[in-house]
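Question thread 4412

I'm putting together a teaching handout and wanted feedback from people who do this every day. The idea is simple: show students a protein as raw sequence, then show them the structure tokens that encode its fold, then repeat with a second protein so they can compare. Below is the first pair exactly as I plan to print it.
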Amino acid sequence: GGSYKESALLNTICQLIFHSLPAYMMDSMAYLMGKKPVMVRVVEKMHKAQKAIEYFATNEWKWSNDNVEKLNKELTEVDRRTFNFDLSDLNWPDFIAVYVKGTRQFVFKEDLSTLDEARKHTDKMFWVEKCLQIVLFIVFGKLFAWLFC
């Protein structure tokens, strides 16, 4: 489902089975019940975000900050205040929260006023997806048992 696979083909198959197929099924059910279908759009946004970070998430990266540490030791106190690049003082949870909001606003062009509503909707859709995956697993299991047992 939500993790990268070593094989691009396997990754695509998993996206279809665990993301796109349930989204189309949910949207079909929503349409038949007279509600607005939204899951396909949500999955497409998710795949867009996943594609944007795929290269960085599927490769190994080795970083060295030896030069930064050396430079930091050589700075005067005035330079340290002027060119503050000491990340030990950075509040990472706050930074990530601002980063995510910025991504939502500027990359996905979404209004921040709907953030709480979007969180609730995402939580709800997470459980809807899990329930649908269980149903599909049971259906495919019964189909497999019927065909091969």
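The second pair follows. I'd like the answer to focus on this one:
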Amino acid sequence: VRSHTMSSTNDVDVVEPDETEAESAVAVEEVKMNDKDLVCKFCGSTILKAGVGSHTQREYDLPKMTQDKRRAETETDSVAEAWLVTDMFHFHNVGFTKTVDTTLKYLACADCDGGPVGWHHVSNTKEFFVAKDRVDHK
């Protein structure tokens, strides 16, 4: 049931939406889905189909996709934007690493093992992140 406040100014009726309606309109505008398929930068395999992931600002340090073998420590890149996927079965072609530090799994291309392209905290079964700059959008 919608409720509106009506006011009259100079013989013109103005209909103003109630707060709940205005808030839900803003929430709908803020959700941006991936409008293109997300594909592996190395082999071009589709990782996620268009319209499945929602855009999120999420800073995270991921291991670099190519490592300098002469270094003992793992080099990382900070990523700031990601596509959030809420069901692991929505992926088209992704692999998960073994659990790292008892809480984390990395996402990689299932065809060529390129990655990591994203991450998943094992304690949250409804959040899988694909780093926006780690995949191509086609």
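Top answer:
Good format. For the second protein you could add a caption like this: Residues 35 and 123 are 29 Å apart (CA to CA). DSSP finds one helix and eleven strands in the chain.
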